[in-house]
Design goal:
This protein is 38% helix and 18% strand. The chain has 560 residues and is α/β, with parallel strands linked by helices. The strands form 4 sheets. Strands 1, 4, 5, 6, 8, 9, 10, 11 and 12 form a 9-stranded mixed sheet that branches. Strands 14-15-16-17-18-19-20-21 form an 8-stranded parallel beta barrel, surrounded by 9 helices. Bound molecules: sulfopyruvate and magnesium ion.
Length: 560
């Protein structure tokens, strides 16, 4: 008997825990999930163990005697395709298991005696109970099963909960003949269905193991089930970890790794979505935000001078001292694993800028953007202010001083052009862009307070010509606050590499706070304001209080 563990996928529902780590390497009860499985297989004398890895494969520890197969296309395929990276191991009696699930040995043992047929799967009978405990009581992700006697009839996430009498727990045994049948069926389908709908999947490439089981059943083959009750745990969400009474230990990234992330992401993705933060809690919220089936999230945090000043009750006129700013930066670095882009205002005089660059770099920030206005600047969106521009040679010199000051090749200094804000026009902006690029700027931000994106779209075209002329290709940044109907995809297509949503989290919180104040005053109680408030429990979760409580509980349990 041999084993194949499928551990290639990304665990996106575990948010920051699996951002850099494969799910199978998350620690449960003191060791990685994968190690739990390896130990069980070894206890049962199954020593030919194979692991299919993909996402962050370098983080899967090399265990003696374990063979690895690499699914480097893991982003574009799914678990069935993953299994076939280890096709050559499907040549004998084999147990296949999901790498993100913990099983008790007694369950695996049920698969060891002569099986009822050539393909056997373990099915949980009490499956609904697990979901009742969850806050998001959703059965939709369960691989539900309908069986009769010991024969599988239907399987997959799509099976209606009312109809299901079990859940597949992610562990199956194939006899030599069963493995042969699986290979034959898959290889017969591959030429015709690789990119075509297959069972419930959009294609064979994207299919689940359950899709091929259903196919086999539909073709008249027998898939047998062995029922179990409890003794297994699939770790899909942070809540699952909590239900398991686990400590939630995010893998913190070191400041130097975080600092390098912006350049790395620019190289890998070519486009960065940044969102403003002004303190730890806004950075935590920004970092945890995900949207849609693709689990889209922000790539970077912008520490805005407007919102940081406002959060401290100040106007945005370069009032905050360097220690205050560094304090905010260090709070935010601690609160997020995202790279930070700091709004450096004018940077002050070159000596002050040098000092700031060194400190910010040391804290783990990835970039500072300085604007070419004279100190002290006024916020660019203020219509009443007359914005005076710095002499471009003096500003270029400040950039050079900053570039000479930082020590790591990863830190970026981006020059922000205020020509359009100051009413000096496109020519002035382009000329300054040239001057600053020649001075060594790592990127250019063009700012505009026009309601229409036309001027920044025009600038992007001219910037591309300038980049060609100079032979210097550096990222282009914009801040669509006033021209906010244009989408990121359009800005990207126009040649922008970083888009910053510069003030929205502070604005959102101000509005919510105003609503709450008004509502409590009006109703003489807080009940009516609940709809504008998150729960206190949510605060506990966001700032790690729940994790501390879990750790204490675990400690107490272990020392009973
Ligand atoms: C900030 O967010 O502080 C900025 C952008 O500098 S803006 O407010 O538009 O000037
Ligand atoms: Mg600012």
């Amino acid at each position: 008997m041999k084993a194949i563990i499928l551990a290639a996928g990304v665990g996106s529902r575990l948010l920051y825990l699996t951002k850099h780590t494969p799910k199978c390497m998350i620690h449960i009860k003191g060791k990685p999930i994968l190690e739990h499985q390896l130990d069980i297989y070894k206890n049962l004398q199954i020593n030919d163990i194979n692991v299919v890895r993909g996402f962050a494969k370098e983080q899967i520890a090399a265990y003696p005697g374990i063979k690895f197969y690499d699914n480097d296309d893991y982003k574009d395929n799914n678990i069935l395709a993953s299994l076939f990276y280890a096709e050559k191991e499907l040549d004998n009696d084999v147990i296949v298991s999901y790498g993100d699930t913990i099983f008790e040995q007694k369950n695996v043992e049920k698969l060891l005696p002569t099986p009822p047929g050539d393909i056997t799967i373990l099915v949980e009978l009490d499956w609904k109970k697990t979901y009742e405990k969850k806050k998001v009581n959703s059965h939709k992700d369960a691989e539900k099963v309908v069986f009769h006697g010991d024969k599988l009839l239907k399987i997959g996430k799509h099976v209606p909960s009312e109809e299901a009498n079990g859940e597949f727990i992610g562990i199956a045994r194939f006899t030599k003949r069963g493995a042969e049948l699986l290979k034959q069926t898959f290889n017969e389908l591959r030429p015709t269905h690789w990119d075509k709908p297959f069972q419930q999947a959009s294609s064979l490439r994207k299919a689940y193991l359950t899709d091929i089981f259903q196919e086999l059943v539909n073709r008249g083959h027998e898939v047998n089930i062995i029922p179990i009750q409890g003794g297994w745990l699939e770790i899909d969400t942070i809540e699952d970890l909590k239900l398991a009474g686990e400590e939630i230990i995010p893998k913190k990234i070191a400041p130097e790794v975080k600092r390098a992330l912006l350049k790395k992401l620019l190289a890998e993705k070519g486009f960065i979505r940044a969102i403003e933060s002004h303190n730890s809690i806004s950075a935590i919220i920004a970092s945890n935000a995900i949207h849609g089936p693709e689990k889209n999230s922000f790539d970077a945090i912008w520490i805005s001078s407007l919102t940081e000043s406002a959060a401290k009750g100040h106007p945005d006129i370069e009032l905050l001292g360097i220690d205050s700013r560094l304090h905010t930066i260090s709070e935010i670095v601690e609160a997020t694993d995202k790279p930070l882009i700091i709004d450096g205002d004018t940077g002050g005089d070159p000596n002050a800028f040098e000092y700031f660059v060194r400190k910010a770099e040391n804290l783990g920030a990835s970039a500072v953007i300085i604007e070419d206005k004279t100190y002290p600047k006024r916020n660019s969106l203020d219509d009443d202010s007359s914005h005076s521009l710095e002499d471009q040679k003096i500003f270029a010199h400040k950039i050079k001083r900053g570039k000479n000051a930082h020590l790591s090749k990863d830190f970026m200094i981006i020059a922000r052009l205020e020509s359009l804000i100051a009413g000096k026009g496109m020519e002035d902006a382009l000329q300054r862009a040239e001057e600053y690029l020649k001075a060594g700027a790592d990127g250019i931000m063009i700012h505009s307070k026009s309601k229409s994106p036309d001027e920044i779209l025009h600038f992007a075209q001219e910037y591309q010509k300038l980049s060609k002329k100079l032979g210097i290709e550096k990222p282009l940044v914009c801040v669509p606050t006033t021209y906010n109907t244009i989408r990121e995809s359009e800005l990207r297509a126009a040649g922008y590499h970083i888009v910053i949503h510069a003030n929205h989290l502070l604005r959102a919180s101000i509005k919510a706070m105003q609503n709450v104040c008004k509502t409590i005053l009006q109703h003489e109680r807080s009940y009516d304001a609940e709809e504008y408030c998150c729960s206190v429990e949510e605060i506990f979760d966001l700032v790690g209080f729940s994790d501390i409580k879990n750790k204490e509980k675990n400690f107490a349990n272990h020392n009973k």
